[in-house]
Design goal:
Helices cover 44% and strands 11% of the residues. It is of the alpha/beta class. A hairpin with a 4-residue loop joins strand 5 and strand 6.
Length: 233
């Protein structure tokens, strides 16, 4: 076992799979440009990668703007790579100071993780197989993720630019909220880095080019107005 390093994270972000993604969940855009942006922040140490010793592949700490990685065998498995991409999707929200609820942010991150797996295994991407009866909450959530990936063709070129519907987001949020690890999250809770008024919003920028790019993106960003049905949980 060895540490998952900064170089490993950069390789995943700039790799074929991450760069081929292109979909959005509310105001969160998941695509190659956004992952390249995260890569630049990591490369410039605006977001630091801190190798850990645990078995989890990665964890994004928006308070400290760090990605804490775990220990894994090399080369990294698809599961480890997908988990790292999940955490880097949280960094997209942080960098762009997006006003988004925690459950929706988790849904976007899990969809990125599931899409990575689907592209990695183009002929058989289902994370779980077998009958969908009496399944545990997380398994039910995973089934639903797979269904959304397939419905919107997120794993192939037909799904480029797809916008996940409000009803599908609502369904995924509901299923995720039933998972014990996420049951404590309030329906409208937001991460401390979500939105311009949040206490830990954004990533402190050392690189002036990052600052210029961030200002330009904010100037051109259209404000997202959630569907009223998302207010019903």
């Amino acid at each position: 076992m060895s540490n998952i390093t900064k170089a490993d994270v950069l390789t995943i972000l700039n790799g074929r799979i991450a760069q081929s993604m292109n979909f959005s969940v509310e105001n969160i855009t998941v695509n190659g440009n956004e992952y390249s942006n995260v890569s630049e922040y990591i490369d410039g140490d605006d977001i630091r990668v801190v190798p850990g010793t645990g078995s989890d592949a990665a964890f994004y700490d928006g308070h400290k703007n760090i990605i804490i990685t775990g220990a894994s065998r090399k080369p990294l498995s698809d599961g480890d790579q997908a988990q790292i991409l999940h955490e880097c999707t949280h960094a997209i929200v942080d960098i762009n100071k997006l006003d988004v609820e925690k459950l929706t942010e988790e849904v976007a991150s899990y969809l990125a993780q599931a899409t990575f797996t689907a592209i990695y295994y183009p002929t058989k991407f289902k994370l779980y197989s077998g009958p969908r009866v009496r399944a545990r909450p997380f398994t039910n959530f995973t089934f639903a993720l797979d269904d959304v990936v397939e419905k919107y063709n997120l794993h192939n070129t037909r799904g480029r630019g797809a916008r996940i519907s409000a009803s599908d987001i609502w369904n995924l949020r509901t299923l995720l909220h039933q998972v014990p690890d996420y049951g404590h999250i309030g329906v409208h809770d937001k991460a401390p880095w979500a939105g311009f008024g949040a206490p830990d919003a954004g990533v402190p920028i050392k690189n002036p080019m990052h600052a210029l790019r961030a200002a330009t993106k904010r100037a051109h960003r259209k404000e997202y107005k959630p569907s009223p049905r998302l207010m019903i949980f």
